[in-house]
Amino acid sequence: MIVKSLQDFLRNFFSNSGHHVFFSFLIAKVCSFLGSLLIIKLLPESEFGVLSIVLSVVTIFTPFTGFGSSQSLMRFGSISLDKDEKLKISSYFFFKGILFELILIILFLSVSVFYFNKYEDIFMIFLFCAVRLGGFYFLNHIQVFYRITGRNQTFAKINNVVNIGGLLLVLFLTYFFKFYGYLIAISITPYLSLLWLKKDIYSHRDVISGNYKEMWRYGIFTAMTSLTSDALYSLDILLLGFMLNENAVANYRIAILIPSNIIFLATSFLQSDFPVLSKNFKDKKFLKSYVVNFNKFFFPICLGILVFFYVFKKYIIILFFGETYVENTTLLMILSIGFTLGMLTRNLYGNLLPAVGKIEINTWLSIGSLLFLAVLAYILVPVYGVIGMGIAMTATLLISGLGYLFFFFSYLRKLP
């Protein structure tokens, strides 16, 4: 299967219902943003602060949902060409994942003991969030099942219902029942996915062929990669807060907010194609053709974004954040360069490597990126202030992107 031209590349994307996936990710971004605004406006500062602490713990545990069972299902379900084998793999990970998810929830609840003495009733918040964590397991598994069976449109529909339904639940329950209304809303939202729980997802419990150890190893490495990748976008804030002050953090956060979110253009595209990429992980011509056409499509987009930001950078900051932050135009441009060029390297090859089964490379490069950012920030921030952090982040994105590129083409050269 070779993608011969950009036209074929886009036709395959649309025939694979990739546009549905793209818009579902866009809707998820918008709902997440609106949900954050709602709780800031509807909850008292003290309750919002305690909730933020627990949700930060949830963020750490979420990538390990089912101990990586859904990530393993995505990879090995995609490369299986036999429909019955896909169903067997799904059933295997469904029941094994439930067992591991229960262990994960117990570990999550055990973290609450460190907060008992400082925050009253925090265990109740942990309980609600534990229910939410369990819901994520079902949501992830159900969504992945529909993706590996080629039903991206159904995946997008589930994503839309969960995100839009969740936003409406948050609005309604928080407005009428305040803090506990919000906890109820976020805890039940992932379970809306159960509307799409079909018998095929869990009923084929025959023994599957394959290396179980390799399957679980892939899932755990994927979870670790997700955690360390997300940590990159927290470490910069933590370092600035430690090395400078809250004003520097505020200026940096508004400058990075838009650039860091535009990468969803590339990631949603790549995620919709992940099952196809996994299926063709040994097809050298297909992978080379995919890379060429991806760059043909996204290079003009990235260039257009950079030109747009350069011309309208002042107006963008004033429009979204007010004139108070208008002096951050240089920082906005530095970060825009890192994130837009990162779409062509870090995002592209960082998604291709897991698709071809080289997830451990992503894990080690993600850990290396954290160390590189910390060292560079330590050198640059004392000299250049918040601009130094922007340079450190951009350099980290570009250098790590070249690392992903190097290892992907090293893999490609070994293919016959």
Automatic annotation (TrEMBL):
Keywords: Cell membrane, Membrane, Transmembrane, Transmembrane helix. The keyword Transmembrane applies. It is found in: Cell membrane. The keyword NADP does not apply. It is a multi-pass membrane protein. One of its GO terms (cellular component) is plasma membrane. The chain crosses the membrane at residues 21-42, 48-68, 89-116, 122-142, 154-173, 179-197, 218-244, 250-270, 290-311, 331-349, 361-381, 387-412. This is Membrane protein involved in the export of O-antigen and teichoic acid. It comes from Chryseobacterium pennae. The lineage of its organism: Bacteria, Pseudomonadati, Bacteroidota, Flavobacteriia, Flavobacteriales.
